[in-house]
Amino acid sequence: MLLQRFLIRLLTMAITLFGVAVVVFVVIRVAPGDPIAMMLPPGATDTDIARLRALYGLDKTIVEQFFIWLSGVVRGDFGTSISLRQDVLGLVFNRLPATLELAIVALLMALAIGGTTAILGARERGTAVEAGIDIASGAALSIPDFLWGLVLILLFGVLVPIFDISGRVSPQLDLPFVTQFYLFESIARLRFDLTKDLLGHMLMPAVALALPLAAIISQLLKQSLKEVLDLDYVVLARVKGFSETQVILREALKNAALPTLTLVGVQFTFLIGGTVIVERLFSYEGLGNMAIDAVINRDLPLIQGIVLVFALLFVLINLTVDMMYALLNPRLRHG
Amino acid sequence: MNASCLNIANLSAVLPNGARVLRSVSLSVQPGEVRALVGESGAGKTMIGKAVLGVLPPSVRIVEGDMLLEGEDLGRLQPKARRTLIGARTALIPQDPLTALNPSRRIGPQMTDRLVRILGWSGQGADARIRQLLDEVQIRDPDRVLKCYPHELSGGMRQRVLIAAAFAAEPRLIVADEPTTALDVTVQKQILRLIAQLQREHGTAILFVTHDLGVVAKISQKVSVLYAGKVVEEAETAALFAAPQHPYTRALMAATPRYTDPFASLKPVDDAVLAGLAAEIAAADQAWRRPHG
Ligand SMILES: Nc1ncnc2c1ncn2[C@@H]1O[C@H](COP(=O)(O)OP(=O)(O)OP(=O)(O)O)[C@@H](O)[C@H]1O
Ligand SMILES: [Mg+2]
């Protein structure tokens, strides 16, 4: 049953990715703006332009271009960036780890904040504590991540400048890293001085990304916890002598978390989407920041590569959530 | 010193709108005795059980009365002390075995957690104890059952598991809230017999909630009849069946199904009886409101 579920998901994934590839490919070619014109100095002759178009394969029809590109992609060749004149795949893999680290730190923050407030709110249900948590999560939710970014920049970058609000790491530092996963590698190498610097840079953008998701997790998890806390097996646990906190953690949390889990998966993909603008705001050198440059420069191969990698990330996240859901739910696991 | 296992005196509870759900309830359960609590749906039987076990819904507030568990005044204890006392001396056999087990935890830890985490037994000791109890409730393959998730067991099996868990810590008092209502008719009899047998062997006092006078006759020594949160009659079980005093009790008996006549249960309670009950309740509320209003 689990295997069948997995195979169906795999097929859907392939179809989704193909669809995304087609749409992006067509849209960025139909949209106004000519990459070649942007590369050449003003006054370039028509023959210069035609030569360059032919060089990048832009003289062929969209359908021809697509299949040339696709046959490259299946061989692992995503083409060459027009603006940076480097291999697209190399560029993407160079930047992806920075974005992944940011997104994962933001997700962990959202889970920690959302989870704690949900548990606290459920334990103190009906009191002023719960009301306070509701108000806070309502506020966090009604402001989107990039506005949180601006608020944080104004607060902690300008008004009380206590945090770094620009870049990924202090430029004067010597970096011993062999991978682009700076944060994870700094921890693995026990270079906590670097970890601290990296986290310091990451904190503000991560908080901006985390707050709306934390609010959603808090509200949804608290609601399902409160529903579960009225169920018979929870009452039975109270009769056994367990405290309300123990009851929530031992009996209620796992069952209440299942509906939240699916939503977190979807919301996490939104969070990754949010990195595009938030990275820009904080000049964080990730994939999202590079995506904006690619769009500004009409760098068609780079845009295609980045979008495809983002799409792959999204379907992988959804797949993971689906599998986790099945694993956590004994009824599904045993068929 | 009063030797009652459970003594409830003048217990009243209200809803947020001020309506009383329990009307000055008094009842006691002596050590080792089965006290049946009988009444129709909505009479407040479950409320009384939950009040004793300290798990009333937050909307229900106790406004008056005392509950003594083996002489300890539950109302005077700090929440934590009360919880621990209730956990150590009481147990609950719930109405619906389908919802009373956590669907995402295996049976084993659900049965041993009170012993280990509240009462401080060793894991091995608890495991041995639980196996002994599973044997007493005639579960012959404890290894399999302990590893199961609840949905892998039938309703009757789950209720056996819950009964075994309830008796495992040798509680002084068990609240059994309609423990057979949710089961198949054939299984009902087995489960009832099982509870009666374990009760006798362990000498546990039981507050046995039911709406079925047939069950009352089989299992209990004493009985309290509840109507609209008020105890309208209390007697030794044999005496009650021999000579019911209250018109409502008589009406209930007339309405109890006989095996030969399945439609007997459809006989409604007499209008005159209901009118008398309404007047009785109104008078009780008036008397109660004077000092409390
Ligand atoms: N959570 C609650 N909040 C407010 N009122 C409630 C709540 N639960 C039950 N009641 C009310 O309290 C009264 C007593 O309910 P209770 O569940 O004790 O009845 P019962 O005798 O156990 O009936 P049944 O045989 O249906 O289980 C009913 O009038 C019911 O509507
Ligand atoms: Mg009930």
TrEMBL record, chain A:
Q: Which residues cross the membrane?
A: 7-31, 102-122, 143-163, 198-217, 256-282, 302-328
Q: Which SUPFAM superfamilies match?
A: MetI-like
Q: Name one GO molecular function term.
A: dipeptide transmembrane transporter activity
Q: Name one GO cellular component term.
A: plasma membrane
| Compartments reported by the entry | Cell membrane
Q: What is its main location?
A: membrane
How would you describe this protein's topology in the membrane?
A: Multi-pass membrane protein
Sorted keywords for this record are: Cell membrane, Membrane, Transmembrane, Transmembrane helix, Transport
Show the InterPro entries listed in the entry: BPD_transp_1_N, MetI-like, MetI-like_sf
Q: Which domain of life is it from?
A: Bacteria
What PANTHER family does this protein map onto? DIPEPTIDE TRANSPORT SYSTEM PERMEASE PROTEIN DPPB-RELATED
Name the family the entry cites: Belongs to the binding-protein-dependent transport system permease family.
Name of this protein: ABC transporter permease
- List the top taxonomic levels of the source: Bacteria, Pseudomonadati, Pseudomonadota, Alphaproteobacteria, Hyphomicrobiales
Automatic annotation (TrEMBL), chain B:
Q: How does it sit in the membrane?
A: Peripheral membrane protein
Cross-referenced PROSITE patterns: ABC_TRANSPORTER_1 (PS00211), ABC_TRANSPORTER_2 (PS50893)
The question of whether ATP-binding is a record keyword is answered with yes
Primary localization class, coarse = membrane
List, alphabetically, the Pfam families matched: ABC_tran (PF00005), oligo_HPY (PF08352)
Q: Does the keyword Lyase apply?
A: no
Q: What is this protein called?
A: ABC transporter ATP-binding protein
- One BP term from GO: peptide transport
Q: Name one GO molecular function term.
A: ATP hydrolysis activity
Q: Recite the UniProt keywords alphabetically.
A: ATP-binding, Cell inner membrane, Cell membrane, Membrane, Nucleotide-binding, Translocase, Transport
Q: Please, which domain of life does this record's source organism belong to?
A: Bacteria
Task: Name all ABC transporter domain ranges.
Answer: 6-253
Q: Which InterPro entries match?
A: AAA+_ATPase, ABC_Ni/Peptide_Import, ABC_transporter-like_ATP-bd, ABC_transporter-like_CS, Oligopep_ABC_C, P-loop_NTPase
Q: Where are the transmembrane segments?
A: none
Q: Where in the cell is it found?
A: Cell inner membrane
Q: Which family does it belong to?
A: Belongs to the ABC transporter superfamily.
One GO CC term, this protein:
plasma membrane
